[in-house]
Amino acid sequence: MAGPNFDEVVNVHYEGLYRFALSLVRSEADACDLVQQTLLRWATKGDQLRDGTKVKSWLFTTLHREFLGRRRHEDKFPKVEISLVDEGELTAVSAPPENQLDGVTVMAALQRLEETYRAPLALFYLEDHSYREIAEILEVPIGTVMSRISRGKAFLRAAVLQKVVG
Amino acid sequence: MNRDEAKLILEVSRPGDEAAADPQLAAALALAQADAELAAWLAQERRWDAAVRRELRTVPVPADLKASLLAGPQVVPLPLPDRRPSLSTWFNPLVWAVAAALVLFLGLAAYRSFGPAAKDNRLADFTRAMVAAAPDDTHHVDVRSTDFTKAKSWLADRHALADIDLPPAIQRAPGLMGCRILNWHGQPVSMLCFVLPGSHHVDLFVTPAAAIADAPVAGQPVFARLNQNATAGWRVGDKVYVLTGQVPEDFLRHCLDPSANALASRTLAVAF
Asked: Whole-structure pTM over 0.90, yes or no?
């Protein structure tokens, strides 16, 4: 079957891919590179995808794999951001008032979470993926995804509150 | 199902999820309808999720990203038309000449590989050895430094090659991570490790040109691919340089281009 053409895929998915990438890599330039690499793979291999309904899932899986591949390289040179040191594990607290949130604050809080929680939470919030779809994209068991989303939400809430309340 | 189990299921579900298709979710929702405290918790959870979802989607996307993405793959090669050889092709003398040359080449290659005079001091041998040395995760560099002058000084203090001419684009881009000293057939090899813009990890190896039987001619770099690594070998003065990494070959070409600007994160977008 004929899938969507490249321009259609870019138009529909580039914003979601970028925000997902940004939640993973924390840097605008690196997020752009990840999106570019993902769509380059689509341009060269997308026609192998038989099921047209799986385009979105294919793109997010590919971007996540690309991220993991790059991270394996960077693990040789672990970087510790000074601002993230000595903060300890965040503890769950009650929800902050929703009307105090803003996108930049929430993204910054999301980016501070451990990678284990970042990817499932970003997919949960940014792209409205179900936990079953997230398990497929991240290639982890459904039970693992459920517990990561659950714990991740508690950590995110605590991190946002820390930002909002100060 | 108790309240805690219901909470776990409800907090990973979304308002539009089909309870009919998920018995666990259906049970959790039923419990929430019968349990006022759970219902209040769920309402709060939904408000929070909606706010986070709404705000995350307001995070700005770079204005030029879409244009660069749409411009990117324009030069991706189109699939070639089916060119199965016709019957007349097999009677073409040129085809037979090429086949004969191929057989001769393979024979010579086999002789070079397995014959008594096999040598392993060619550029390809050096490159293969360095690519194999590069991914040593536990000891990738001897010393970490982002300062090229200090790295050269460290190499010089240990009698390794320190008079290193960096390729122009690398010279102008920050990204030095460290250096290492290796040995290849008794010759010192200085290694510099870079993580260049775009998270492109490349390693540069420098050894005396005298150590390599077929050292490249100055000004004529040799590009190759070895497994997942792109490699470039070139000569400056009495030294041979090999640059390698799991990067597109165009990236290495850009690194060696004397007219190239400093490497930027969008370099690959331009290259593609």
From this structure: no
